[in-house]
Amino acid sequence: MDLNTVLEVRDARDRAVWRPGDAWLGGGTYLFSEPQPHLRRLIDLSRTGWQPLRVTPAGDLEIAATCTIAQLSRQARSASPAAAPLFEQCCRAFLASWKIWNMATVGGNLCNSLPAGPMISLTAALDGRCRLLSQAGAVREVPVVDFVTGAGRNVLRPGELLRAVTLPARALAGRTAFRQASLYGLGRSGALLIGTLDPVDRTLTLTITAATVRPIQLRFPVMPNARAVREAVENAVEPGEYFDDIHGLPAWRRHMTLRYAEEIRRELCQESTTAVVAEEAVR
Fold first, then answer.
1. Structure-derived torsion over alpha carbons of residues 32, 35, 41, 46, reported in degrees to the nearest 10
2. Which tens digits make up the pLDDT trace of 154-196?
3. What is the value of pTM for the model shown?
4. What stretches of 40-179 show up as alpha helix (H) in DSSP?
5. Among residues of the chain, what percentage have pLDDT more than 90?
6. Fold identical between 53-170 and 172-277?
7. Topology of 53-170 in CATH?
8. 73 closest CA partner among 62, 65, 83, 84
9. Which long-range contacts (CB under 8 A, 24 or more apart) does 218-222 make?
10. How far apart are alpha carbons 171 and 250 in whole angstroms?
11. Looking at domain 172-277, which CATH architecture does it have?
12. Domains of the chain: which residue ranges?
């Protein structure tokens, strides 16, 4: 779609002074999908040269905000073998064409902050931290679960930029379980839950997205029973936090959340028991 109110496109490397009516341009798949009458300038990030994925000396995985879904799908397999299936599952949750895969960015998906954003699901579940840059050069870090505050809302301040998301090595080494529901065969996610099992202390972490207006994360230091998981979900999600739109009523989203939470508990409980038995056999 043509944005006929945009008068100028500037290179992000020029360090232009941010002003009302500006917007960061990553892949542009959202910006050019509907009218943006409030915009006057686009600040183009495509020439920043940020490395899409980088493994730090500590083993953490840094994902640049400009990393495309296609790049994430290809490169994450070698960068993080243990979590590779989860990366691919979340990339596939886009249900998008190859053209979107090659343009849409991880940063754009987070900054749009829509409940069904699968990059929000992925990075929140793996304990990701957002690195935010202000126009004055200040840097702050915010956990992904706190970055998104509601449907289409986040903690970004005017002119602030999401530079990268860092996933810790410990989270990348854990076991994962993925569940997604949609009302349609090729529809937007109505509920997307991810469970992770810590490789060190066996903590179970359950991350709820798509069903709720913001990511909600629950941690269980000891493997819980079905009742404990249900009660934890019921207490963590306020009645008004289940999203309500054409892709699913709140009652259905709640039902699928509780159902998938229990399925994930069973799957990871079984894997945890198997792992413990294997460790004891080695000893």
1. -10
2. 999 999 999 999 999 999 999 999 999 999 877 889 999 999 9
3. 0.93
4. 69-79, 84-92, 98-101, 106-112, 118-125, 144-147, 169-172
5. 78
6. no
7. 3.30.465
8. 84
9. none
10. 30
11. 2-Layer Sandwich (3.30)
12. 8-44, 53-170, 172-277
